[in-house]
Design brief:
The structure holds 2 protein chains of 2 kinds. Chain A has helices at 15-19, 47-74, 95-100, 135-138, 143-147, 174-177, 203-209, 240-246, 304-329, 341-344; strands at residues 77-81, 106-112, 121-127, 163-164, 167-168, 183-188, 191-193, 195-196, 254-261, 270-276, 288-293. By secondary structure, chain A is of the alpha+beta class. The chains are: A alpha+beta, B alpha+beta.
Chain lengths: 349, 1152
């Protein structure tokens, strides 16, 4: 009984409204968008789709896996770990002492070529346990300074390798300071094998990131030498070892390109390496390896991709079979209302 | 401003000197009429806006993270980069706020610069609104908007009537009458200047009340709500009106009412916060691992730290013992490492999710508002979303508490039956047509008007009403109809020239009458009286004119006691032209029978017969009123008049005094008869209720009607069915209620002494029963069997009917618990005769006893408390004003839209938002975990392989759009299916879209995917020349593609927008990376150009996608094969049915 409740008030449908011909109707305009009726594709997982998907994956993955595996197997790789062997046996108790002394660090290594290697043969050095991705290290560079002659003073992020008494260091920072300085010389049958150092870095780095008119200054002048020195009269854009080194590695174990040997090597060739073992990895017990490797479309030797692809492809093929069997043995009619929860378990408890 | 300002009103009344603004404003500082709805000015915008924005926890989190990053040892990101997310949200919000405020400024300026005629020394002159002050006298012309709250002094109408439309204030389109006091109106028409003092309350926001008096030439005139016109209303049908400003500017009731209602928080969001807690635990664990790892690593390499090329803690330039470089000792380094990992992992806590959710809800509301199926053409009202926080709660409602009048019914009253002098009329429907002619004849030529509403009168009653005025029965009928026509507050509006109504059957010279009133019941009664020949023609505060069978009667109104909820009746004192005075009373039967005359045996007989009729009527679902009258003698009249005058002019306790005056005359009444009005059910109500109940929602009806009416309406809307056992509880004392409850429980074997577990168990059982029995696919046979199995006697469904009196005892005492147990066992609960606060009490009971969500729906002011109390409040924009709508979270035109709102939109919103939250958790966690695994490979040094910008863009640009699009547009089932199978709604009850186990499964999946993301590139590029930026670039694109494909796998409905958003995001990501890698200053310069040339890059991305998503896909397929959900089956049925003719075709259109 609401008749005349004091706070309520009412209207017979306003007389003006009913007679007026929909002058200002608020009826929502019809469009398929506003009514949420846009044409749509509504996928459901029918048996065909499920089995088809698994088959499709296996059909794509198995060939890729096979091809990658073959590509990886074609790559010939020679790896020589030398950081311990290149220290005279008597001095191996104090490796750090040895590497910091002024003794001759030349070292001879002999490598056997296991298979024919087509040129170009890439020469890498590999460092283990060297955290080039450490935050203190990664940040310790000044890209402004590398690029631009005018930004010599831009050494903000480079601490603690930013300045010497003689002014700012170019290139500054820990990365440049710790530039790798082992050198390798190769001979085959007493014939010198030329190692090309051209084009071992990214073109974009050479052309845009490292300035053509930026020259090293005050580099490795400090009390503690970290690594290689740079030729003072060569612009940074031509110091390819530095450019390669400055592309810091993603993982603590990494390879860097040292150079390219542009002749083919035959099977059972013996290669003598004359090695200057200068770089100090002993203080953090890092390994050093010399790697000679051919390359394929996939890159270096790595079976992981091929095996992973084959495994996934095989698994998907297997799953396709399993689901095929399931659908054959225990089919469920799609959209069958008898599977609805209120039809399925009538007792309810 | 609060309502209780009323109480301070008489301690400190507001004095207004009419036409003397200076004096008025001298005494106290009344605000001018300038209004300011804008929040900011140009000067304070920045600080104030920032201040308001930082009230949100999310922004504080951003700020704290950004501040942490500014500390030198922690600078993980570049300074600008780290500020970007904060600045981004701040700017976006500030621009939005600024724009809104600018619009408010503009509308304020327009409003303030409007002009009104103000009385100055030499007549009325225009003046800007903002210059108007309290105490000034204003003249308003027809169709003008009223600039401030004014007391009417005079109008163009000699009787002082002014009609106003209050559309802007409360949304009602009917005209309301306001009166100028006769005394002032007379003075005005004579052209005399009025000077007096108005004493009124302090400003308050109650638009339906005003108490004041006016001192005029030494007399005190009472002023009430009917004498005031409020800002925002429009003057209609009145040439001009003059009034004095009492409240101006911010003091006006319109301005005081513009506050927003408090916001609610959705259930899903509460759960989400619980899971956010888990995420913060994960975050803490990861940061601890990084911090401790750093500590241990430093400890192990302590001796080498000086020289380690990638650490180097000392400057060597200044000698061997040089300054330390960013090294603060192992404990501090550990701590800093912990803090900086918080910065790196910050998006683990999905703060942006709150902003995303707001956007998504906004989009969902857009579609709900735009739904044509929820547009009511009768009231021309769309669906309204007044609250943007609880869209998804609509998908989980368990209890609907509904008002009856105006919600289930139309609240368009139709006079159906009458009992006059012990005889019931209006039963016969046959033959009305034939007698029509006779009726017309009987009416004679007296009838010259046309009513807006058409009623088919009972011919017998017509005959009676046109007989000569002889005999008790005839006189009773005369008084009866006179009461119907006079005892009300309805205003007749005569629309003049009828010749303009083309095609009208009526001849020239006839008048069309439209009755405008605040109560639909009264309108119906007046219209009925008119149909029987007693037409109300004119009403002023002093007299009314009634055409009784062609004879014009001018009746002086001596006093009018309006309806109130305590007396439950209304009375009017009229003086006939011949000087006799009568009290005409109408009211609810309970309040009327006690005040009837009980002298004669025939009174008893009459009362008995009428009671029988009343019971009949209310069992048919009709609303009844009892009509009575009484002749007045002079002595009593004088006494009453004295009291009435007193009460009317009193500023305090007026209501009580009026009630006392009313009690004086409302006694010893002669019973005339009773009326029965039909309140028609709204269209589609029974079907809607049926569907909602099938959906597992319990519908409780709370009504102010009496028990019989409530039951009959319950029957007609199929809430109650014949086979139900009705438990009726209507005790008059606590003891009686307790007994009734116990009896009912004993009878229906409800063991209320059992532990709560048992009861919930029982509850579950009965719920299941109920599902069974309403299931269409099930035979009743089966359900019988099931109830048999449960070892319970078969009673059939139960219905609980309880009245307001009992509720008073039950809700206050410990019986509440028992009532609740009983009520949850019942299929239907009907509460009748409940007061507004009791409605809220019932909602509160349900909320406190269960975790289930409640929805309250109502249309009147009496539902406001219930609407605000419930988890979701729905208002019906109906006949009873706008208060319910103003207090509601959602508003709509018809009850039946509720079905669509819950079953369709509620379901969609719930599914969408549930998925959205899980997906956002996943999206952020997979990214953070990927960073985490990498940090373990960098000697715990919080290096990120990704560029700073990519890290920041990841959640802002790379992956944000598709989640929003899917959250707004995805839908699992079409609305047709959802409406056809209401039981699908139970998915929301079972929390299928979002629950703890889903969260943990998602987290496991996240863990797997992050491991794949990290280890596939790691193994692929093991012992290679890969540099950190190439690796980061690969990870960036891999994670973006992965989360987008993950989303794509779960999309149920691919529209072009979804395609654009998902594939577009991947393209945009590539675009951003190309741009970032083209800036030579960045160390990552050129990376992407180099990478895309390498096949390994593409192969590893493909590998990541497939391995990462394989478990999820297998899980999905297995679940669909072995444990299909209801939604899944319905979806298959829906799609395959359409697709069958061209099976296998992918393109399927949602044709509806």
């Amino acid at each position: 009984m609401n008749s005349g409740t004091p706070s309520s008030s009412a209207a017979g449908a306003g007389s003006a409204d009913s007679t007026a011909p929909r002058r200002n109707s608020k009826r929502p305009k019809y469009s398929r968008f506003t009514q949420q009726e846009l044409p749509a594709c509504k996928p459901i997982l029918t048996p065909k789709w499920v089995i088809g998907t698994f088959l499709l994956v296996s059909v794509i993955f198995i060939p890729i896996g096979v091809v990658s595996l073959f590509a990886s197997r074609d790559v010939v790789e020679i790896v020589d770990r030398y950081e311990t062997d290149c220290i005279p046996e008597a001095l191996r108790n104090d490796k750090v002492g040895f590497i910091q002394s002024d003794r001759s660090k030349t070292c001879q290594r002999t490598l056997r070529v296991p298979k024919n290697m087509k040129q170009p043969i890439y020469v890498y050095y590999q460092l283990d346990n060297f955290y080039q991705n450490h935050r203190r290290y990664v940040k310790s560079r000044s890209d402004q300074q590398l690029r631009n002659n005018g930004s010599l003073q831009d050494t903000g992020p480079c601490k603690p390798e930013d300045n010497t008494a003689g002014g700012p260091i170019v290139p500054c920072g820990l990365i440049a300071w710790s530039l790798f300085n082992d050198t390798y010389g190769f001979t085959r049958n007493n014939q010198q094998l030329n190692v090309s150092k051209r084009d071992i870095s990214w073109k974009s780095d050479r052309e845009h990131k490292f300035g053509k008119n930026v020259f090293p200054r005050n580099f490795q002048n400090g009390t503690l030498r970290g690594g290689a020195t740079l030729k003072p009269n060569v612009s940074l854009s031509e110091q390819e070892d530095l450019i390669v080194w400055m592309r810091t590695a993603a993982l603590p174990t990494f390879r860097k390109l040292y150079g390219k040997i542009e002749v083919d090597l035959q099977r059972d060739d013996f290669i003598n390496v004359t090695l200057e073992n200068n770089y100090n990895t002993y203080s953090f017990s890092g390994k050093k390896k010399l790697v000679l490797s051919t390359t394929s479309w996939l890159g270096g030797k790595n079976d992981f991709v091929g095996i992973a692809y084959l495994t996934v492809g095989g698994l998907c093929f297997f799953l396709a079979l399993v689901f095929l069997l399931i659908y054959l043995i225990k089919p469920r009619q799609l959209g069958d209302p008898s599977y609805l929860s209120w039809n399925r378990n009538p007792s309810g408890h | 401003m609060k309502l209780d300002d009323n109480t301070t009103g008489h301690d400190n009344p507001r004095l207004i000197h009419i036409n003397d603004p200076k004096k008025t404003c001298d005494h106290s500082q009344f605000s001018g009429n300038e209004i300011r709805t804008s929040k900011y000015t140009l000067l304070n915008f920045l600080p104030k806006n920032l201040f308001i924005q930082f009230h949100r926890v999310a922004y504080l989190y951003f700020l704290a993270i950004a501040a942490l990053n500014q500390l030198p040892p922690l600078a993980v990101f570049g300074r600008t980069v780290s500020l970007f997310p904060l600045l981004f949200v701040l700017t976006v919000t500030a621009v939005k706020d600024g724009y809104e405020d600018w619009r408010r400024h503009r509308s304020d300026r327009n409003e303030n610069n409007r002009e009104a005629l103000v009385l100055q020394s030499d007549g009325f002159h225009p003046k800007r609104w903002k210059m108007i002050q309290a105490g000034e006298v204003l003249k308003i012309s027809s169709d003008e908007t009223i600039p401030c709250d004014m007391v009417l002094l005079g109008t163009s109408d000699p009787s002082g009537i002014a009609y106003i439309q209050t559309m802007n204030l409360d949304g009602e389109s009917n005209l309301k009458t306001r009166y100028a006091r006769q005394e002032t109106n007379k003075l005005f028409l004579e052209g005399t200047m009025i000077s007096g003092i108005i004493t009124c309350e302090q400003p308050n926001r109650n638009i339906y009340e005003f108490m004041a008096n006016m001192e005029l030439n030494g007399h005190f005139l009472p002023l009430s709500q009917s004498n005031i016109i409020l800002r925002g209303c429009q003057l209609k049908n009145t040439e001009w009106a003059v009034g004095v400003v009492v409240y101006a500017g911010q003091d006006t009731k319109a301005m005081l009412n513009s506050a927003m209602s408090p916001s609610k928080r959705s259930r899903l969001e509460t759960y989400m916060n619980r899971e956010t807690f888990w995420l913060s635990v994960f975050l803490l664990i990861m940061c601890l691992v990084v911090g401790l790892g750093m500590g241990l690593w430093l400890n192990r390499h302590k001796s080498q730290l000086d020289t380690l090329p990638y650490y180097r803690k000392i400057y060597f330039q200044k000698g061997k013992d040089g300054k330390k470089y960013k090294y603060y000792g192992i404990p501090m380094e550990t701590f800093f490492s912990f803090l900086s990992s918080i910065i790196v992992f910050q998006i683990m806590i999905p703060i942006s999710l709150y902003i995303t959710m707001e956007l998504v809800r906004l989009g969902q509301s857009y579609f709900m508002i735009g739904d044509q199926h929820m547009y009511d053409s009768l009231s021309n009202s769309r669906f309204q979303c007044r609250s943007l926080n609880i869209n998804e709660d609509l998908g989980q409602i368990r209890y609907i508490l509904s008002d009856k009048t105006g919600t289930l019914t139309e609240n368009k009253m139709e006079f159906k039956k009458a009992s006059i002098w012990g005889k019931s009329y209006g039963d016969s429907k046959a033959g009305s047509r034939e007698i029509d002619a006779g009726v017309e004849e009987a009416m004679g030529s007296g009838r010259k008007w046309k009513l807006k509403s058409e009623i088919t009168p009972d011919p017998e009653l017509i005959k009676l009403s046109y007989k000569d005025l002889h005999g008790e029965e005839r006189i009773a009928a005369y008084d009866f109809f006179l009461t119907l026509a006079a005892c009300n507050t309805v205003i007749p509006i005569l629309t003049g020239s009828p010749s303009s109504i083309s095609g009208s059957l009526l001849s020239d010279g006839q008048i069309s009458i439209d009755y405008q009133g605040e109560s639909p019941d009264e309108q119906a009664l007046v219209a009925a009286a008119s149909a029987y020949g007693y037409t109300l023609f004119e009403r002023t505060s002093g007299h009314i004119v009634i055409d009784a069978n062609g004879e014009k009667l001018r009746l002086d109104v001596l006093g009018l006691h309006e309806f109130d909820s305590v007396r439950k009746r209304m009375s009017v004192v009229i003086r006939f032209p011949n000087g006799s005075v009568k009290v005409l009373v109408k009211g609810a039967d309970t309040s009327m029978f006690s005040i009837l005359k009980k002298d004669l045996p025939c009174d008893d007989r009459m009362r008995h017969v009428t009671q029988v009729h009343l019971n009949d009527y209310s069992s048919e679902g009709l609303r009844t009123l009892v009509v009575a009258s009484r002749d007045f003698n002079g002595e009593l009249l004088a006494e009453w008049q004295q009291m009435y005058e007193d009460a009317c002019t009193s500023l305090t306790d007026r209501v009580v005094k009026l009630r006392q005056a009313a009690a004086l005359i409302e006694c010893n009444l002669t019973l005339l008869g009773a009326t029965a009005i039909e309140d028609k059910l709204q269209e589609g109500v029974p079907e809607a209720i049926e569907s909602l109940r099938q959906a597992g929602i319990k519908v409780w009806v709370l009504t102010g009607d009496k028990q019989e009416t409530a039951i009959s309406v319950g029957l007609s809307c199929r809430l109650l069915t014949a086979d139900m056992h009705q438990i009726i509880i209507n005790g008059n004392s606590e003891h009686e209620c307790r007994k009734l409850l116990c009896d009912a429980k004993a009878k229906y074997h409800v063991n209320y002494a059992s532990s709560f577990d048992d009861i919930t168990n029982l509850k579950r059982k009965t719920e299941h029963n109920f599902l069974e029995m309403t299931s269409q696919t099930k035979s009743s046979n089966m359900s019988q069997q099931i109830t048999g199995e449960e070892d319970r006697p078969t009673f059939g469904p139960l219905a609980l009917i309880i009245d307001g009196n009992s509720l008073v005892y039950i809700l206050e005492k410990d019986l509440e618990y028992e009532l609740f147990n009983l009520a949850t066992l019942c299929k239907v609960v009907l509460c009748c005769r409940v007061a507004p606060l009791q409605k809220a009490g019932i909602v509160d009971m349900i909320k406190s006893r269960t975790d289930d969500l409640t929805l309250a729906i109502g249309d009147g002011a009496n539902d406001v408390s219930m609407i605000q109390m419930a988890d979701v409040g729905v208002g019906i924009c109906g006949q009873e004003g706008r208060q319910a709508v103003m207090a509601s979270d959602f508003a709509m035109g018809q009850f039946r839209f509720l079905k669509r709102l819950l079953l369709v939109h509620g379901h969609w919103n719930y599914q969408r938002l549930g998925y959205l939250i899980l997906y956002n958790f996943y999206r952020n966690a997979v990214f953070v975990l990927m960073l985490f695994w990498y940090i373990l490979c960098t000697a715990f040094s919080t290096t990120s392989a990704l560029t700073d910008w990519s890290s920041v863009f990841y959640s802002v640009i790379y992956t944000s759009v598709p989640t929003v699009v899917v959250g707004i547009l995805d839908k699992d089932l079409s609305h047709k299916t959802l409406l056809k199978y209401p039981k699908l709604y139970a998915a929301g009850h079972r929390q299928e879209s979002y629950n703890m186990s889903l969260f943990w499964i998602t987290m496991l999946d996240t863990l797997w995917q992050s491991l794949v993301l990290f280890y596939v590139p790691l193994f692929t590029y093991r012992e290679s020349t890969i540099d950190i930026w190439s690796m980061g670039s690969l990870w960036t694109i891999a994670v973006v593609i992965l989360v987008n494909v993950h989303l794509a796998m779960d999309i149920q409905r691919w529209v072009f927008v979804a395609h654009a958003a998902i594939w577009g995001s991947i393209v945009v990501t590539y675009g951003c990376m190309v741009v970032l890698d083209s800036i030579p200053v960045f160390p990552n310069y050129g990376t992407i150009y180099h990478l895309v040339k390498s096949p390994v890059y593409w192969i590893s991305i493909l590998l990541i996608m497939v391995i990462g998503l394989l478990p999820r896909f297998i899980f999905k397929v297995c679940r669909q094969i072995f444990w299909p959900s209801d939604i899944q089956i319905a979806r298959e049925a829906e799609i395959l049915r359409k697709r069958r003719p061209f099976f296998g075709s992918n393109a399927d259109q949602d044709s509806s």
